């Protein structure tokens, strides 16, 4: 068996075409351009690359990207205040704090300074809770992108056993909740799971999100399983790709699988946020009827 590639670049291109159309309609209707603000702390080369890619995609779909670069030595308080200013800025529709931030900064405090209505990257506790309870809100961008990629290939999830390897609050945990909402049976594992090989071997769907290159060995993969590799380090994913591809039915490449879907989901949620903001403004402008 040789796995079919889950082509994130092709699927993301289709999503971005839809976003471009929606942005054009939004500009005609409201007379302004949606804005995504990106906050980057420090000089990490990979983070700069990711933010530049996101800015390029914003330009491609007709959005504005506002880039805020902060010195690595700033305090948590300074970062939180900056994000709160963006949250209160009526011209900003979405806010992205590029992960990771320097070790001395309380990243969770910074995430929580993002207004839920502008949390288009789905990193706040509010977004996680709304997603988990299926009450709207914004999905974490990478998990949301993974689900969109699986849907694009009509991969059934109901009744399947999904194993998520990874437990981060912005990737592993939320993707498990999204899979659960689609009636998959979900097992969470991580790098310290004692019987990781056995758990993976039972999975119909494997989502590798541990951030450890080639942690998942090819021989662990159940024949016919779907393998989604959300890892990325030096162009190597969390899965031993060549060996896994000989056993899986579908597999994502690294790069070119999950990464493009993350950016597409981020921008799709930004235009959604922009529309919600305009609807809220219109509703607040309607005078209350006399009681």
TrEMBL record:
Q: Which Gene3D superfamilies match?
A: Leucine Dehydrogenase, chain A, domain 1, NAD(P)-binding Rossmann-like Domain
Q: In which pathway does it act?
A: One-carbon metabolism; tetrahydrofolate interconversion
Task: Write out the entry's keywords from A to Z.
Answer: Amino-acid biosynthesis, Histidine biosynthesis, Hydrolase, Methionine biosynthesis, Multifunctional enzyme, NADP, One-carbon metabolism, Oxidoreductase, Purine biosynthesis
Provide the catalytic activity annotation: (6R)-5,10-methenyltetrahydrofolate + H2O = (6R)-10-formyltetrahydrofolate + H(+); (6R)-5,10-methylene-5,6,7,8-tetrahydrofolate + NADP(+) = (6R)-5,10-methenyltetrahydrofolate + NADPH
Q: Which residues are recorded as binding NADP(+)?
A: 166-168
Q: Which residues form the Tetrahydrofolate dehydrogenase/cyclohydrolase NAD(P)-binding domain?
A: 140-277
Looking at the keywords, is Hydrolase present? Answer: yes
Which GO BP terms apply? L-histidine biosynthetic process; methionine biosynthetic process; purine nucleotide biosynthetic process; tetrahydrofolate interconversion
Q: Which GO terms describe its molecular function?
A: methenyltetrahydrofolate cyclohydrolase activity; methylenetetrahydrofolate dehydrogenase (NADP+) activity
Q: SUPFAM superfamilies this protein is in?
A: Aminoacid dehydrogenase-like, N-terminal domain, NAD(P)-binding Rossmann-fold domains
In the record, which residues are listed under signal peptide?
A: none
Tell me a GO cellular component.
Answer: cytosol
Instruction: List residues of the Tetrahydrofolate dehydrogenase/cyclohydrolase catalytic domain.
Output: 6-121
Q: What EC number(s) is this enzyme filed under?
A: 1.5.1.5, 3.5.4.9
Q: Which family does it belong to?
A: Belongs to the tetrahydrofolate dehydrogenase/cyclohydrolase family.
Q: How does it assemble?
A: Homodimer.
Q: Which PANTHER family match?
A: C-1-TETRAHYDROFOLATE SYNTHASE, CYTOPLASMIC, C-1-TETRAHYDROFOLATE SYNTHASE, CYTOPLASMIC-RELATED
Its biological purpose: Catalyzes the oxidation of 5,10-methylenetetrahydrofolate to 5,10-methenyltetrahydrofolate and then the hydrolysis of 5,10-methenyltetrahydrofolate to 10-formyltetrahydrofolate.
* Protein name as catalogued: Bifunctional protein FolD
Per the UniProt record, the lineage of the source organism begins with: Bacteria, Bacillati, Actinomycetota, Actinomycetes, Streptosporangiales
